[in-house]
Each structure stands twice: as C-alpha cells, then as structure tokens.
Design goal:
Layout lengths: L8 H20 L16 H11 L2 H21 L4 H6 L3 H4 L1 H20 L4 H35 L7 H35 L3
Helix pairs in contact: 1-2, 1-3, 2-3, 2-6, 2-7, 2-8, 3-6, 6-7, 7-8
Length: 200
C-alpha cells in the first residue's frame, strides 16, 4: 500500500522543487547535511526524503531519494573527500538504490503504522521515520559489504573476518543516532507542512 495524497499539480511540482533544492544544499554546503556529534557524524539528509514520503506520497519520496543518490554520485566524482568516495559513492547500487528505498519503505511503513496506531498519527509518523532511516543505513552498509567488502575492510583497518561486526557497530551508533533524529524531526516538519500542501 502506498500513500496517495490529494494535491494540486502546481503544489506538488513546487514542493518537489523545494525539496530538491534542500537536498542540493544539504549535499554541497558543509554541516547542513550532517549533525557533528563526535565521534559520530550522523546524516540528516535522509530526513528530507522521509518528509517527502510522509507529506506527499511514497512515489514522491522515492523521487527525492533518487535525486539525493544522483547528487551524491556527482559529489563523489567532482568533490571526493577521500579515495573511499570514488570507490563507494560512484556505484549507483550504493549511492542511489538505498536512497530510493527510503521513500518506498517509509511509505509502506507509514501505511502499516497508520492502521496499527489509528488514533496516534504522530506515533505512526515517528515509527515510519525510524524505518526509513534504518533502510538507508542497512542497505548502504549491505551493498558496501557485498560489492567492496575487502577494500572497505582494508580502508578502515579491519580484518575481513571482523567486517560484519564493524558494520554492526556503525548501525548501532550512527544508525541509531540518525533514526532518533528522524523520529523527532520528520514529524515536526511533516505535520505543519501537510496543512499547506493538502488540497481540501
């Protein structure tokens, strides 16, 4: 089941444009796409994708996620921060697919939690946001392991036999921090944004 919100076409196009601009700014302006909490560096760009899915539709969330992925690839080619950027983020399976899946899984999760918590929409929004956040973390790390496991293990100075454990630590630290941020921030943005984007 996907989300299908009734909106006028101009409003939808305008909001897609605004969210696309936010994605671009978050990707290319330092510190606007991440929360610097040493030793963690959780991203908040995924929250923009989650908001798109919760405010507009599952499809629109997937579109914004795809835009994030393509933008991340462009940044890896043009502004690589390390050799790992060129290794990992130029692969669309790592850069693009997980970001599209954020929109898909957020929309599916919200439809499920909306039924489960029928009288508590904020809880449904927060729960779906957590699912969307972990979708990004888990699929990015899964594809890194599948495609570049040995190279990534060498880059982070971990034995290949211990790589799964190292990736699990990332999920338990950055992944949890990102999920908490999404659960708090996404509903706070989504609820008022719906009031101006829904067509009565």
């Amino acid at each position: 089941m996907t989300l299908n919100r009734k909106q006028s076409k101009p409003r939808r196009i305008a909001l897609l444009g605004i969210l696309t601009a936010i994605i671009l700014i978050q990707n290319f302006v330092p510190f606007l796409g991440n929360i610097p909490i040493p030793p963690l560096n959780p991203t908040i760009i995924h929250i923009t994708v989650i908001v798109a899915a919760l405010t507009m539709s599952t499809t629109d969330g997937m579109i914004i996620g795809g835009i994030w992925g393509v933008t991340r690839m462009i940044r890896a080619y043009t502004m690589p921060a390390s050799p790992l950027d060129l290794l990992l983020w130029t692969n669309p399976m790592i850069a693009v697919v997980p970001r599209i899946l954020i929109g898909l899984f957020t929309g599916w999760a919200y439809a499920f939690f909306k039924r489960l918590f029928s009288e508590k929409d904020k809880l449904a929004l927060a729960s779906a946001s957590v699912v969307g956040s972990f979708t990004n973390t888990v699929f990015v790390l899964l594809f890194i392991y599948l495609f570049y496991g040995e190279a990534y293990a060498q880059a982070i100075d971990v034995d290949m036999s211990n790589l799964i454990g190292a990736l699990g630590v990332i999920v338990g630290t950055n992944g949890v921090a990102e999920a908490i941020a999404a659960a708090i921030i996404a509903p706070l943005i989504t609820i008022p944004l719906r009031k101006i984007t829904y067509q009565k």
